[in-house]
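User: My collaborator sent over this chain with a note saying "see what the structure looks like." That's all I know about it. Can you take a look?
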Amino acid sequence: MSDYNPSVLRGLLALTTRELKKWAKEPIILLMAVLQPVIWMGLLGKAMNLNAIFSINSLNNVNVPDIKIPEYGIIVPGSLLKQKLLEVFESIGANVMQTVFGVTDYFSYMSVGMISMIVMFTTMFSGMSMVWDRRLGFLDKVLSTPVPRSAIIFSKVLNAALRSMFQATIILALAVVFGLKISPKFSPLNLMGIYAAIFLLSVGLSSLFLALALRSTRHEMQMAVVNMINMPLMFASNIFFPTSMMPEWLQAIANVNPVSYLTDAIRQLTILPLNTSALVMDFIYLGAFAVTLSAIGITLSWRYLTK
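Assistant: Without extra context I'll predict from the sequence alone. Here is the result:
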């Protein structure tokens, strides 16, 4: 028998190419993946037009009576008072939006969060892919070859990361078309930073979902586990709302949620004035999350990834 032992890199390249070819053959999956955040942007981002609360139109039907000051014989017309109040109200509204969200329109705030959401939903399919490979018998065939098990794991991690970056590019472009206000200082370097942050979270989350799918043979079970994890990750983060405005117990969860760090990093690089120390902290956290989860995934694969 030959002592042929393919390197990790060669096995990784072959398996990743297979995963990407499978994805390319199913354009409907890409369409569905992109449609979901687009629907969120269209329905939630545009429907929750928080700026309208502070607009002049919201107070048009409010009647302000004339104010009489008998001591001085002065009557201040209600229409004049209303006009001044509307101007003050609108000015306060812009300041409130800027203070709470960091930008003056909610759509820009939440549409950037959609990039984090698409990363979460793309990485969850890495575990599902493992389950299907096991059920179809492909995993048994790969395990019968000298391909290192770490290459099997990393091929699915790399596939999820590349897909996430590609889909995030589409979502970011669509968000700009729909009204996302990009910072004037945005540059290709910022885009590279976004890709780096997406890659780190994709590695961490994919490793987590793969670790949970190592022994699973039923996709129903994997879907139940993924939904149980994804929903809390999404709503206990800053995707839709600033964590500083949440109750204290929820802030504690959001502050350890890696999705919050990805979303903050992307906002720093797209719509907010760059806070270098906060951005560095985001990348340190995402890097530690990726290294820790991928190490756990590889360790578990050596123990539990069997035929």
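A starting point for your reply to your collaborator: The longest helix spans residues 106-136.
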